[in-house]
Amino acid sequence: MYMPTVDQYLVADCLFIIDEFNILYRGYKRDELKKEADERFNEMDITVRVGYPFKQTVHYTAGESNRLKKAQKINHDLYIEQRDFKIEIKYLKNWVSSSDTRSASKTWGVFQQDFDWLMDEIDAGNKNKVAFVIGWFNCVESFSQLIQLGKGGGAYPLVDERKLSYFPFLKRDKEPTIAKDLRYNYANAYRVLPVNPISARIGDYNCMFLGNPQDSFHFAIYY
Fold first, then answer.
1. Which of 22, 85, 129, 130 is the most exposed place for a label (fewest CB within 10 A)?
2. What angle do CA 219, 188, 191 make, to 5 degrees?
3. Within a 10 A sphere around the Cβ of 114, how many other Cβ atoms?
4. CB 147 within 8 A of CB 92
5. pTM, whole model, 2 decimals?
6. What is the pLDDT of residues 31-41, one digit of tens each?
7. Residues 76, 64: contact at Cβ < 8 Å?
8. Closest CA to 46 of 70, 78, 12
9. Is 187 helix (H, G, I), strand (E, B) or coil?
10. Cis amide leading into 157 (omega within 30)
């Protein structure tokens, strides 16, 4: 018997959230939208929005890891018991200091842990029941301002190909590629994209990028 998959639920869910923000922030300029993203929203705001359509069937596990020993760490923010779905959420924001220096909101290691968790679950036979959702306001010039995609130091690092392999919805316009020059490939939005990490992993990992240039908010769903 065919059962709906976690990504099918999440795509509709995330599209409604994008519509909500488009209505809420219609007419906002980029700097105004960035102020909202930095000062009004946090990861729990997005987590609650993603979990809301599941109503009483959802259990919010976000924050429970802080009360558990490391060996008992919970690697997902939402658990939908009725479907046995586990969903991890990350909300991205970029901070710009008074001196205009830029740094991603989380280090790469945080994202690598989430990707590893998802791929471990899929490799263990839980495909279609687990997902990793990344959400962010469309308010900065480059995706690399939200996630550290460069290698080495300096103001304009070259792209780290290992990191880039997790983001099939990004494109480069020239070689060698500086991280800040990566662009969204909107032609691949709303399509199932294979994720082929530069590693020994050989599982069936997919991604769907949700967003258009005029949208206030974007999502990437990994499953």
1. 22
2. 75
3. 19
4. yes
5. 0.91
6. 999 999 999 99
7. no
8. 78
9. helix
10. no
